[in-house]
Amino acid sequence: RSVALPPQVPYAVNADFADLVLLAEDGQVSDADAGTAHDSVDPARKLFEVTASGTARPADTARAYEFGVLATAAQLIGAGQAMLDQSVGYAKQRTQFGRVIGSYQAIKHKLADVHIALELARPLVYGAALSLADRSADTARDVSAAKVAAADAALLAARSSLQTHGAIGFTQEHDLSLLLLKVQALRSAFGDPTLHRRRLLEAL
Length: 204
Fold this sequence. Notes:
The protein has helices at 61-93, 105-134, 139-165, 175-188, 193-203; strands at 2-4, 12-13, 21-25, 28-38, 47-52, 57-58, 95-96, 99-100. The protein is built from 5 helices and 8 strands, in the order E-E-E-E-E-E-H-E-E-H-H-H-H. It is of the alpha+beta class. The two termini are 35 Å apart. InterPro entries: AcylCo_DH-like_C, AcylCo_DH/oxidase_C. One of its GO terms (molecular function) is acyl-CoA dehydrogenase activity.
């Protein structure tokens, strides 16, 4: 399934092979057809313009948007953890000046900071999921907090992982390059951190 929720989510992801494509806006949802394709910074994500092709039906599009934000935050946590795991493994194997690079404090501290950021963001994602499930009045606040924390943690993981791996992390042959692009795409999906920080401020 793939859905577009304008204006925050104007394109549907991979709508060309989704078994169901939806257009949700203004409290209504309708079946939709995929139109013009747009490239994403993440080669695994194709973005499509969609046009309604069926009768619009009433729907809680605001709640659907919150689910999308939460799912994006969860993916960011997963991508960040994957990069951290790869970097720890690489730091234990790569040698420089006769020592594995993981023995240097600069590397240890950098990866420890990533671990802390991910562990601080993870409970916010769990909490946002509970708020959504309970239909809490604070759902928008909690979901935005989760997206901001997850996006920041994943960005830190991306930067630290690339610095740990060095130039090989940029290459298409290395899995890290795929995760770097995925994080860049997910940070802006369903609203970038700036939008969600604004929502947090409005909820205070």
